[in-house]
Sequence to fold (738 residues):
Amino acid sequence: MATDITVQLDRVSKSFGEFKAVTDLSLMVRAGRVFGLLGPNGAGKTTTIRMIVNITAPDTGSITLFGGTINAELQNRIGYLPEERGLYRRMKVADQLRFFAELKNVRGKDVNAKIDDWLARVKLPEWKYKRSMELSKGMQQKIQFITAVLHDPDLLILDEPFSGLDPINVELLKEIVLDLKRAGKTIIFSTHQMEVAEKICDDICLINHSQKVLDGSLREIKSSFGRNAVAVRAIGGDGVLDDPELVSKLVRHADEAQALLAPGADAQVLLKRLIAAGATVEKFEMVEPSLNDIFITKVTEHA
Amino acid sequence: MRKFRAVLKREYIQRVRARMFIVSTILLPVVMSLFGIVPAIVMNIEAGGPMRVAVIDQTGKMYGRLQEALATDESTSEQENEPRTGPEMATRAFRLEQVASIGPDAAAERTKLDARLQSRELDGYLVLPPDFMQTGKAEFFNNNPGDVISRRIFLSALERAVREQRLIEAKVDPQTRQGLFQPVEMESVKVGSRGEERDAGGSFVLVFAVGFIMYLAILMYGQVILGAVIEEKETRIAEILFSSVRPFTLMMGKLVGVSLVALTQLAIWATAFSAFALYGVNLLASRGLKTSLPNIPLAHYIYFGLFFLLGYFIYATIYALVGSMVTTTQEGGQLAMPIILILVVSFYLFLPVSRSPDSSFSFWVSMIPFSAPVAMLVRIVTQTPPFWQIALSLLIGFGTVILITWAASRIYRVGMLMYGKRASLPEALRWARQA
Fold:
């Protein structure tokens, strides 16, 4: 069932001179799912993506795309929104979009209809004949997003697609991404913003210092970490939460704290100790660790 | 191929539509003709009236001759034996006045003339001593020794006047006099395989014109190509492009696209120029003047076209190569300076090559792609080399174009992967080799 897997990397390595960008990376992107490629800055996310879209070739290892090896033909089935992105400043939006479609071998009359359709979806229809230099940065980013999806790709690769966007537009693009997923597209989503990834990814792969740290379905990963975190809102009893025997990590928010239980510690013991210390417990809830917590735990473990 | 066309089309349409293109198409010929006309007009401005010169003619024969010589225009005079330099100078008019001055009065006359010079009633006075016809020594007293042009004209007129007078004194009759100054005509006849061909250097002029237009096109469009290659780096579009199109296709598309813009502009100018030229020829014909096109075989025209394209593309690809190594247009402009130098040097090669088109020196420079366009064209119109040499030169040339473009696209791609870094030369070489 090779066609179930849109992208497969098998022990892929890439270095630039002395610098190892990607080391021995294997991963699998399943069709019709949103795959999060996560990691801190400089982890090797962008290099990995560039190898998938055939901008650079791996030094060793192999990449399988849609069940075959990458070639120019398969490039046309990919939509790519790089982190480094721009538009031709003096070109009109519609001309620009048509040009990028032509580069994916899409042309003809229906392109114009598609352009209208997409401009409407990102709420910029009146900017069709404006030069891109007249657009605000956020508007340009939405146009860049259209360049990645206009040719109706089967695989969509988005590298930090929401950086610098306001919350309303983040929401707008997120909905579009989820729509595309529902339409059966495969999406690779690269980011270091865990909160965003948590909301839209089905599967994730965490990389750090060019190496894979963790991968699998987000659901499974979270449950494997267990419900070992407690959300606490209590008045008094502060010393208890600082006991390293019980709490390995404590994050204080405005009015509540998130406590990661120390290995072997029991939540019930923690609750009893809090009450014994005279605290008024307003909230005490077992929660799944956030992706951010997992990310930080894993990254510091490997450091 | 369709992606190549897409890139080419974008480059072409965006540039031809740009206001800059339309403005420069119209304005450049205007500016160029202004450069031709304005200096000529300025130099012909006649500030002040005619030059007032008094003549103390102690020989008693020269005054009339001098007046005659000044009246006949220098350019139509038969004694014109030195080549004219510079543009047509304004022949400032002279107003002569004879001062009777034979004998002891001379000294007194000169004091009087000096006074008139001082009060600016006079611009100068000429003293021709009694033995002037033998010694040829005269004195010219004037206010403005810096006016070399007027002095030269005056001197030349005086020379002619003396020559005329001496011939008369030698009793040479007017007909013989005219015969003596009959100008020489030398017609150059090329002896080729097809017999004798009369060609007054027309094809040579054409080679020069082809070379010049090439030079102009590169000067104007080299920077445009540089900018076109850098554009995607500066706007950060390169990565999107490379996920869709091969770097070589992109580079070729840009190169050809911009070149078609250049050709479009040249074609517009050529059409306009031909229209004017035809009008001019007709005008001359209606006045009974005969003009004819230089007698050039058709094959030569084809070679002109091919080598023009070769020359243009060789230098255009170097600009593309420079563009692939730098990150901003300013940096590129500095790196591009040596290109112009190579271009100029190769242009001047036409002199040694035209002197000995069959030498091994000429052979080699007509094979090196950077000098081939001008050198080979000179050889073709002088002593057409064997066909294989022409074909080989073209082959090497266009091969080099492809090779440079290929290298440029490699460097360009690797450079893109390392944003914001300008390639040093060894790095560029390594990048070209890297996959």
Q: What stands out?
A: Confidence is low (pLDDT under 50) at residues 74-91 of chain B. The radius of gyration of chain B is 32 Å. The beta strands of chain B are 51-57, 94-98, 124-128, 139-142, 189-192, 195-198.
